[in-house]
Amino acid sequence: MNKPYIIYNLQDAHEEIEIILSKIRDPHYTNEQFYRSFQHLIHHVNIAWNARDVSEQITNNP
């Protein structure tokens, strides 16, 4: 398990959730903006999930 890489990506996912929560209350926040933000969130969650089977020696450090 590559804990540093998982932590890095979960922190980015957490930040994206905070951004989404702050912006979604804005009536001008569009579906397109939500879509892009959610893609970014899922990207980091997916990387964190897949890093569970990766050695710490294999990945580039962020």
Plain-language structure description:
- The chain contains 2 helices and no strands.
- The protein has helices spanning 3-23, 31-50.
- The model has no long low-confidence stretch (mean pLDDT 90).
- The chain is mostly helical and 62 residues long.
- 66% of the residues lie in helices and 0% in strands.
- Helix 1 packs antiparallel against helix 2.
- It has one domain.
Q: What's this, in brief?
A:
The chain has two helices and no strands. It has helices at residues 3-23, 31-50. The longest helix is centred in the first third of the chain and has 21 residues, at 3-23.
Task: For the record, give the distance between the C-alpha atoms at the N and C termini, rounded to a whole number.
Answer: 16 Å
Helix and strand succession?
Answer: HH
Which descriptor suits the 3D outline? elongated
Q: What radius of gyration results from the CA coordinates?
A: 14 Å
Q: Describe the main β-sheet briefly.
A: none
| Unreliable runs | none
Mean pLDDT: 90
| Helix vs. strand class | mainly alpha
Q: Number of domains in the coordinates?
A: 1
| Number of continuous helical runs | 2
The total of beta strands comes to 0
Work out the strand percent: under 5%
What percentage of residues falls in helices of 4 or more residues? 55-70%
